[in-house]
Write a structure and sequence with these properties.
The protein is of the alpha+beta class. The chain has helices at about 15-25, 55-60, 100-105, 130-135, 175-185, 210-215, 240-245, and strands spanning about 5-10, 30-35, 45-50, 65-75, 75, 85-90, 110-115, 125, 125-130, 145-155, 160-165, 190-200, 200, 230-235, 250, 255-260, 265-270, 275-280. It folds into three domains: about 5-60 and about 205-225, Pseudouridine synthase (2-Layer Sandwich); about 65-200, 2-Layer Sandwich (Pseudouridine synthase), CATH 3.30.2350.10; about 230-280, PUA domain (Archaeosine Trna-guanine Transglycosylase, Chain: A, domain 4, Roll). Helices cover about 20% and strands about 35% of the residues. The strands form four sheets. Strands 1, 2, 3, 4, 7, 10, 11, 12 and 13 form a nine-stranded mixed beta sheet that branches. It has a five-stranded mixed beta sheet with strand order 14-16-17-18-15. It has a two-stranded antiparallel sheet with strand order 5-6. Strand 16 (about 255-260) and strand 17 form a beta hairpin.
Length: about 280
C-alpha cells in the first residue's frame, strides 16, 4: 500500500477536493486527504496525505501558513474576493502613502480576533456558513482567534497591494485584506492568492498533477510531517506487541515514531520513567 506525504502545487480554478479526487484516480487509491483547504481562486501548496499518512492529519492541520496575496483598494464583494458580487465601490484617490501603508500592516501583527466572511466553509451547527448565505438564512458568524506573525509589503501598483503573510492556521487571508483596506478607509477585495508554505513544507518542493500523472514525483516519509517527534527503530519481532497496544520502555527525550524495516508503524507518547504509550497506529 502506498503511504506518505505528497506536496501538490494546486492550480487556480480547482477545489482542494478536486485535487484529491484526481490523485485518487492517478494513484489508484481511495485513502487520500489534504491538510488546509485552498479556495478555487487560490493556487499554491496543498499538503496531501496518502494511505496511512492520513492518520497524522491532526498534527499538520494546525501548522502555520505563508501566503503571497494581492488585494485591491476601492471595491468590496460579498465573498471578499473576486468570486463574489460587488457590494461597495469607492474610487481610489491615490491618497494612501507608503508610510501609512507600512504602519497599517504593522498594526495587524500579533494575536487578534477575526470575523470571516459568511461565504466561508466554517461549520455552524453542522452546516457550512456559505450554505446559510446561499439560502438567505441568518446565522451568527463565529469569531476566530488568529496570529499574524509577519506581514511584508512586496509591491504596490496603482491600487493593487501585494503582501506576504505568515499566519496561524484558520486565518482567512481575504478577510485580513478586507480589514487592512478598511483601516485605509477603502473597501478592499482579494484578487490573487498563493500559498507558499505549510509549516516547514515549501512550495518549491511540490509537484503539479501533471508531474504525478507522469510518475515524476516523490512521496515523503510520514515522519517528515512529524518533525517534533524522535524516531526509534525496532525489530520485526516487536510489531505484534505494538499492534496489541503494549507500552514501550525507551530512552527517549520526546514523543517518538516507531520505525520497523524502514516503515513508520506507530506514534508513541513519552511519559515518566521512560515508559511510552501508543498514540496512534500507522501500520497498513
Amino acid at each position: 500500500m502506498m503511504n506518505g506525504i505528497l506536496l501538490i502545487n494546486k492550480e487556480k480554478g480547482m477545489t482542494s477536493h478536486d485535487v484529491v479526487n484526481k490523485l485518487r484516480k492517478i494513484l489508484k487509491t481511495k485513502k487520500i486527504g489534504h491538510c488546509g483547504t485552498l479556495d478555487p481562486m487560490a493556487s499554491g501548496l496543498l499538503v496531501c496525505l496518502v494511505g496511512q499518512a492520513t492518520k497524522i492529519s491532526p498534527y499538520l492541520v494546525l501548522a502555520s501558513k505563508r501566503y503571497d496575496a494581492t488585494f485591491r483598494l476601492g471595491m468590496a464583494t460579498t465573498t471578499q474576493d473576486l468570486e463574489g458580487e460587488v457590494v461597495t465601490v469607492k474610487e481610489y484617490q491615490d491618497d494612501v502613502s507608503f508610510n501609512q501603508l507600512h504602519q497599517t500592516l504593522y498594526n495587524f501583527i500579533g494575536y487578534q480576533q477575526q470575523t470571516p466572511s459568511i461565504y466561508s466553509a466554517i461549520k455552524v451547527n453542522g452546516k457550512k456558513l456559505y450554505e446559510y448565505a446561499r439560502n438567505n438564512e441568518e446565522v451568527a458568524i463565529p469569531i476566530r482567534d488568529i496570529l499574524i506573525e509577519e506581514i511584508m509589503l512586496k509591491n504596490i501598483k496603482d491600487n493593487d497591494i501585494q503582501i506576504e503573510v505568515l499566519c496561524s492556521s484558520g486565518t482567512y487571508i481575504r478577510t485580513l485584506c478586507f480589514d487592512i483596506a478598511a483601516q485605509l478607509n477603502y473597501p478592499g477585495v482579494l484578487v490573487a492568492l498563493e500559498r507558499l508554505k505549510v509549516g516547514h513544507f515549501d512550495i518549491k518542493d511540490s509537484y503539479s498533477l501533471a508531474d504525478v500523472n507522469n510518475n515524476n514525483y516523490e512521496l515523503l516519509d510520514i515522519s517528515k510531517g512529524l518533525i517534533d517527534f524522535d524516531i526509534v527503530e525496532l525489530k520485526t519481532d516487536d510489531l505484534d506487541d505494538i499492534k496489541n497496544g503494549k507500552s514501550l520502555n525507551v530512552n527517549c527525550e520526546r514523543d517518538f515514531i516507531v520505525r520497523i524495516n524502514d516503515e513508520d508503524v506507530a506514534l508513541y507518547h513519552k511519559s515518566i520513567n521512560n515508559t511510552a504509550k501508543i498514540i496512534r497506529g500507522l501500520w497498513s
